[in-house]
Design a protein that fits this description.
293 residues, alpha/beta, Nucleotidyltransferase, domain 5, 2 domains, 5-stranded mixed beta sheet, 46% helix, globular
Length: 293
């Protein structure tokens, strides 16, 4: 009977560790000893685009509502969480939803380095809906070419590639057979696509959604060339900006990096740089790193 009581107490005190991009967020609900009880999924939360209502509505519609009273600590790593002011945009509504939790919010680069660092300095990059890179020496994160966001930056991200596809499609610069494929893939046409880009709350997510079509047709020369040039551009801007960049192994986190890893390995070999690891989602590594400390 005594053992059962202890077990119930552990289950009723959970820690949430969350990894959020702009598109999706994975929340690992953990016991006090670091066991993952369940991974919950929601849309991503970026303070640049997320309102209190949107965040609270998304949490209320998720399975997190079943455990919100049990959460005592939240460690949230998110895209766009780069300053105390931005972090408060997410922390305030989270506190309303999780009334008993202490909430700690950090940048998604912190998650990326924690998920891929193995006691050796690295150049760590994120390629997902957006993109970013940093040098991590084991103590400090250094950004030499910070991301300029979805309008002027996000090189080699889903948003970056989606913009190129839409530009070619709207300007009728795609081969006819690819136009036919694309118009079978989506019912949306140029006028509606343009309207959505300029009216949706999160146009970067919408643009990134077209990456899937490009990847599904990556055998087409035009898309193969776009991917290769995009990854090379990312290396030129976000890897070579670091002093002695050939000296340090590269790590990548994110779905676009995972799906385009053949291009990453190819270009890294050409640039004489070692790729240490490419991780699609860092959530499990984040949990291990959190409890190892």
């Amino acid at each position: 009977m005594q053992f059962s009581f202890i077990f119930v107490e552990e289950i009723y005190h959970m820690i949430l560790i969350a990894d959020s991009g702009s598109t999706k967020c994975n929340w690992a609900a953990c016991s006090n000893n670091g066991e993952i009880i369940q991974i919950h999924k929601t849309v991503g939360f970026n303070p640049k685009y997320t309102s209190d209502k949107n965040l609270l509505d998304a949490l209320e519609e998720s399975t997190l509502k079943l455990i919100k009273e049990k959460i005592t600590s939240i460690h949230f790593y998110g895209s766009g969480c780069s300053s105390p002011a931005r972090n408060r945009i997410l922390a305030n509504p989270m506190q309303k939803f999780f009334p008993h939790a202490n909430i700690y919010i950090k940048h998604d680069l912190d998650a990326a380095v924690k998920a891929t660092y193995t006691n050796r300095p690295i150049i760590c990059s994120i390629l997902g809906t957006g993109s970013n890179s940093c040098f991590y020496d084991g103590k400090n994160i250094i950004e030499n070419a910070p991301s300029l966001g979805y309008i002027a930056g996000d090189e080699a991200s889903g948003n970056y590639f989606g913009k190129q596809l839409i530009n070619l499609y709207v300007n009728k610069a795609l081969p006819k057979k690819i136009i036919k494929k694309f118009e079978s893939w989506t019912p949306e046409r140029a006028d509606l696509i343009i309207e959505k880009i300029y009216n949706l709350e999160k146009p970067n997510l919408y643009l990134a959604s077209f990456f899937r079509f490009m990847y599904e047709n990556k055998q087409e020369v035009i898309f193969d060339t776009i991917f290769r040039n995009g990854i090379q551009h990312f290396f030129n801007l976000h890897i070579k900006c670091f002093d002695n960049h050939k000296k340090y192994p590269l790590t990548f986190v994110g779905s676009v990096a995972f799906y385009l890893q053949d291009y990453i390995y190819e270009i890294a070999e050409k640039e004489e740089i070692q790729v240490q690891e490419i991780v699609q989602s860092p959530i499990e590594n984040l949990v291990k790193e959190h409890f190892s400390q």
